[in-house]
Amino acid sequence: MYYFDYLRVRSALRVFAIILACVTLLLCVSLAFSHAHDGNSNVTIGTDTVSADSYSGLALMHHLGETTWFPFGLLCGIAAVITIFFSNALATSIARYNGNLHFGFTKPIAREQSALRTFAIDLAALAVGFLIALFFVLVPFAVVGLLDRITFGPTSLAPFALGIGIAFMWYGMVQAVTATMRGGAGLVLGLSWGVFAVMQALQNLSSDLIPEVVVRLIHFLNIFNPFLYLSDVFATPDGRLTRDDVLAPHYFQSLAIVWIVALVALALAIVQRKRMEV
Amino acid sequence: MNAIAIDHLTKIYGSQRSVDDLSLTVAEGSVCGLLGPNGAGKSTTFKCLLSLARPTSGTIEVAGAPVTPATFEYLGYVPEMSALYEKFTVADHLEATRRAYTTFDAPRASELAATFKLDSKKRVGKLSKGQRTALAIVLAFSIRPRIFVLDEPASGLDPMFQRAVLDLIIDAAAGGASILFSSHQIGQVERAADSIAVLKGGKLVLRGDIDTLKGDEKVVEAIFPGDAPSPNGLANDPRVRRVERNGRILRVHVTGDADGVVRTIDALSPRTIDVLDLSLEDIFLGAVNDGVA
Fold this sequence. Notes:
The structure holds two protein chains of two kinds. By secondary structure, chain A is mainly α. Chain A has helices at about 1-30, 55-65, 70-90, 100-105, 110-145, 160-180, 185-205, 210-220, 225-230, 250-275; strands at about 40-45, 50, 70, 150. In chain A, the strands form two sheets. Chain A has a two-stranded antiparallel ribbon with strand order 1-2. In chain A, helix 3 (about 70-90) runs parallel beside helix 6 and helix 6 (about 160-180) runs parallel beside helix 10 (about 250-275). Chain A starts with a helix and ends with a helix. Chain B is an alpha/beta fold. Chain B has nine helices and 13 strands. Chain B has helices spanning about 40-50, 90-100, 105-115, 130-140, 160-175, 185-190, 210-215, 260-265, 280-290; strands at about 1-15, 15-25, 30-35, 55-60, 75-80, 145-150, 180, 195-200, 205-210, 215-225, 240-245, 250-255, 270-275. In chain B, the strands form three sheets. Chain B has a six-stranded mixed β-sheet, sandwiched between helices. A four-stranded antiparallel β-sheet of chain B has the order 11-12-10-13, with helices on one face.
């Protein structure tokens, strides 16, 4: 029932925007009313040492920012990570409708089409959520007066594609696991944070400590770990910010993996919905 | 053509045979009441009929074709359990239904919502069981379907709204709709249905036109001061179909003339004795207690 999906995401987006607005307002107010010094009477900006009392936090940020470029891709990456949190709150599982199947499955629409609509609406909501997050990421730059230090490049939106892809990969895997569950989908989602975090930590274990076969298994399983791709959202070839958006060599490989896993997982969820008995 | 045709339907869950070789048809423009004690297989039959569950074997056709999503363009369904979305309001449900059906009749929906005194701004989670049933009925009837499948459509409703549901069923039938509905309220089935099907343990134990089933059978009911005595000689009387003793009550089902049976029982000095027309309740209880038609 896509109308209920629409109502659900509209409400979630409203709450998301309010939370981000509050956080951004708090950040800007704290910058405006804070002083630059931190127990010292002077601060150093570039080669100059100036009296801290003459600088508000905003002014200091402005001066610091004037010597730096901010690729738009970086801001997209920040917004995408915020959107991942939003996606977890927005779209726990299509199993949330499993108490309504007598209603939902007796409408003149095929089950797979209904599930596809739900996923499409969630994906659209993630995209809108990303734009909201990006707006609130830009607000502090505007307040500090650094909008002119933001640079655009041909790959500026790539972090968005990867960030949304990670969110949807996570979402898709939760759908595939929980599509026919009568309850506990939220628990699966909650546990997924811990499982993914532990799996990522295990990724760094060497074969000196554990058998090689286990290391290889962990590496294989981590292909499906969204956390593993989070750092790629900000990846540049040398780890430094430049005037241009330059992506790490493996960027598009990560992009392809997260989207393929997301789509395959969603397809699995749809097949389960189609075959589900009430 | 039959509106609903169920042919040798069997549904097995694990080792449980919920529906066992059920064949049942509902003719176009007729009303069939599906009766049975709890666990008889009524809801499972509905689930299979609506493709909510896959039959283990057998076939089901609605309006001469297998059930597909397109079937629900002209089939209205009221489930036994509330399947509505608790977080959303009555108005949201009406709007969702309007978007899902090209046949949605908005004035009709408003009229029905007013009949059942539904507050459109109220969330479903805040509605009583009866109000949820009422909302499900409003949604089903507002799309003006040709075929209705109603699973306990008066469940939880007060007598006034039960009458409203009964009127809706009778009105829809008069308009040519075909209706298959289940109910534990036998009086409601007796008033609305042309025919009944009785399930017991997943099997069809009785099927027929209500008037035909009633035939010329009467019930002689006698109440005694103490436990009802066992009436000698009645068991061999060809007019006697069944004898029931329950505490002080003696009921004897008789075909044809009941005078002879009345005289026999009267000789046992009952406190009261009445000759009653056979009710659907008698037919139903006879079927589920004996398992015979």
